[in-house]
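<amino_acid_chain>
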Amino acid sequence: MAKMKAGYIGFMDRNGDPWEQLEAAAKIGYRGTETGEMLLRNGNFEENRARMRDLGMECLTVSTMSGETLAKDGAASLIKRAHDIGVERAVMFHGKVYFTKMNKPASYDDVMREIELLQTSAEQCKREGIKLAYHNHDPEFRMSFNGLTVFDMLLAYAPDLWIELDVGWTTYAGYDPVEVLHRIAPRLSAVHFKDYLPGPDVQVPLWGSVEKYNMPNFCSLGSGALNVHGCLKACAEIGIEYAIVEQDFMHALTPMEALQVDYLVMKESGLLE
């Protein structure tokens, strides 16, 4: 059973130097980041790529934020960016049903239109050697139409779409992430590790608004509800290359402290390089 590498997404202080923070993450032991495209694109691409690799870090993917941005920019944009950077993965971070958390309804027709877009885009990406993946939150597991969860609709009706499973959101939705990991193993592109404290949700600001909406009380790995070791073991058995940590907002630690804790918890499992 091959050992995994540690990756991350987010955690960066917007007011800090991104390269200094990337170097700090590399010194902790991280070997890849899903936010690497931003660094590569800001300035001279070739120099930035060499600089990143000198730190022992890799850019793991290109991304689009939602079905709306995917429809607007097209799969061709993702494909070009992936080829330019030299990655084989692309991901869409927010499906239509995510925004139901913000009181924006999603009908069966809305969901099916997005799934059709995802399948068409995944087919285009596949022809160019790119794996297009969908990143889940909890509504994909909580919402059902005609007896199928939205998550299973994605699997059934978009056969060329990959899944970037967030095991924290899966747990929060009431599902066993280890079972889900093994069940969808052939469709897994990547896995996000995220933990949260059991108990009441917290209210956080809505994007670009003073309004607030409920979210899990996110925390560092090993401090909350996630079966961290079980998920790591499942990922290693499946052959996942990177265990990618994510924390939507901080609890008691600074972002760099949380990155350190997350890495050490995963390293202690013996399943990380």
